[in-house]
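Protein entry
_____________
===
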Amino acid sequence: MIEFNGEYYRIIEMDQHETPRLYRNIIDLLSNEPPDEDIEELSRDPSKQFGKYILAETLGEGGAGSVYRAYDTKLRTYVALKILNSVDADSLQRFIREAELIASLKHPNIVPIYEINDIAGKYYISMQYIAGFTLGKLPDKLSEKGFITIFIKICETVHSIHQHNIVHRDIKPENIVVDKSGWPYVFDFGIAKKLGNSLTVNNSNIIGTPNYMSPEQINGKEIDCRADIYSLGATMYSCFSGKSPYDGADPIEILKKVLETSPQRLNSVCEVKVAPEIELIIDKCMEKDPSLRYQTMLELKSDLQNYISGDPISVRAPSFAYLLSKKIRKHRFPILIILLVLLFS
């Protein structure tokens, strides 16, 4: 347990109907790889010591905290250790909320949490270490079928998150890890939101990754599970093309493009062309209007499965009238000028 603002938080809970999570996690930990040969050398470096942990490698850094591959000297195995950099009340509250959200989720494709605690006032979360690569840094590009198989699993995982009234809000290639066997994991719930009775949340601040944020998330409007569907569509676009859906000189320019333009056609930027059905599925995920997207992750999963099995998908190629209406909305002022010129000429 840890204390915050006079309240105690117990993160690892026991389930009376199954083996306690704590013991299952220890079993999982003990099945991991033995320590590298350099751990003994690192253990003599005071800068690499953090309580019972030895910091072996930096996995990622951000404004809120840093993530390390660390060696747990008590359990004698590696963990992923997220250490909070800031100690202000808001950051600590978000950090605790992240741990609580992860602990509330039980899914084979979500990285489980082992512990939240502090060492000399520095708070940390200990999680299972996944030896693998993020979708954004795979050493070898997967086949079309390989990517789709992973995305089907991600749909199932994020649907489970949504069933707990949680919106992830930061689905992107860097937040999906694929282990050595090809099994994907969703992680980093730093900006996820636990919602009320309805699956909506009102955003007062722009929080997220510009290239993968839905327009409604950028605009600070109410969001729901369809914001994650947009982000997964943008993630699929990036994985198949090797490029982000939008580019820009700075985040503000990217955000503006997300709101006002559509990304380039997927096959126009892919070195290896994808099937037209994949383009249609991604386009539907990335519709500006949430009502035009898939409404649940299970709907998206169904179309991905249908494509894999050779069955028809639910999406159809857009009609000429629809494409024309999008062009008019995008270039409404030049078109208005042209119409006025024609009218009065």
